[in-house]
Structures are given as C-alpha cells and as structure tokens.
Amino acid sequence: MAESWEGVMRMPGIQASQAGRRFRHPAGTVVPVWIDAAGQSQPPPVTATQVAVRVVLAAIATPAAVALVLWLAWRGLRWRLDRNRLARWARAWSRVEPLWTR
Q1: Which of 34, 78, 84, 101 has the fewest CB atoms within 10 Å, i.e. is most exposed?
Q2: 36 CB-near residues (< 8 Å, 6+ apart)
Q3: pLDDT of residue 12
Q4: Mapping DSSP to helix (H, G, I), strand (E, B) and coil, where does residue 9 land?
Q5: d(Cα 24, Cα 32) in Å, to the nearest integer?
Q6: What is the Cα–Cα distance from 3 to 10, expressed in whole angstroms?
Q7: Can you tell me the distance from the alpha carbon of 66 to that of 21, in angstroms, rounded to the nearest whole number?
Q8: How many Å apart are CA 43 and CA 24, to the nearest integer?
Q9: Is the pTM of this model over 0.90?
Q10: What's the pLDDT score for residue 1?
Q11: Closest CA to 2 of 18, 14, 16, 19
C-alpha cells in the first residue's frame, strides 16, 4: 500500500536487501527508492543545484548558438555576394581585356 507525504508517493515494504542489489547499500540501510506509476524504479528528481547548473548552461549556450547561426548566415550571404561580384568582375574583364592586350 502506497502512502503520500508532501506529494511524494512512498511504498513501504521494499526491503533494503532487495534495493541493496541495485544501489549497493548494506542490508538494513534506509534508502529512498523512487518509482513510477508502473512500480519501476526511477532516478531521483533533479535537485535545486542541478536545476541551477542547467539554467546557467542554457543561459550560456543559447546566446552562443544564436551568435553561431547569425555568423553562419552572414558568412553564407557574404560568400554568395562575393561570388556574384567576382562573376560580374570576370564578365566586365572579358569585355575590357581584349582592348588592353593589343
């Protein structure tokens, strides 16, 4: 029978000797075991520190990713414009070059 405490479902009756095989605790040790609705053990929920680390990483990674995308778009546009400019230069030179080489 499960009991709820502070919104967390707790299942009495899980023996430490059973949990000890998976989590490597000696028999008789009280260990928190998190389970899902199907009764399968799950990792514990993230801590406040883990959340803070993830927020900081996201705060660093997001602007970096946006900057990278913008830089790549700028480089792609620059490549396309340079290619077009060089093609126009080649066409203009093909018209002028015969006059200069006489």
Answers
A1: 101
A2: 42
A3: 55
A4: strand
A5: 13
A6: 5
A7: 46
A8: 15
A9: no
A10: 46
A11: 14
Mean pLDDT calculated for residue range 18-41: 70
Residues 6 or more apart in contact with residue 54 via CB below 8 angstroms: 46
* Pairing between β-strand 3-5 and β-strand 34-35 as defined by DSSP bridges: unpaired
Q: Which two tokens stand for residue 52?
A: 């803070």
Mean per-residue pLDDT for 63-89? Answer: 97
In terms of Cα–Cα distance, which of 17, 15, 22, 20 is closest to 42? Answer: 22
Q: Are 43 and 33 in contact (CB under 8 A)?
A: no
Q: 9-37 burial by CB neighbour count: b if 16+ within 10 A, else e?
A: eeeeeeebeebeeeeeeeeeeeeeeeeee
**Residue 13, token pair as written in the block:** 């009756």
pLDDT at 61 over 80: yes
What does the alpha-carbon distance between residue 86 and residue 44 come to, in Å, rounded to a whole number? 60
The confidence band for 2, taking pLDDT boundaries of 50, 70 and 90, is low
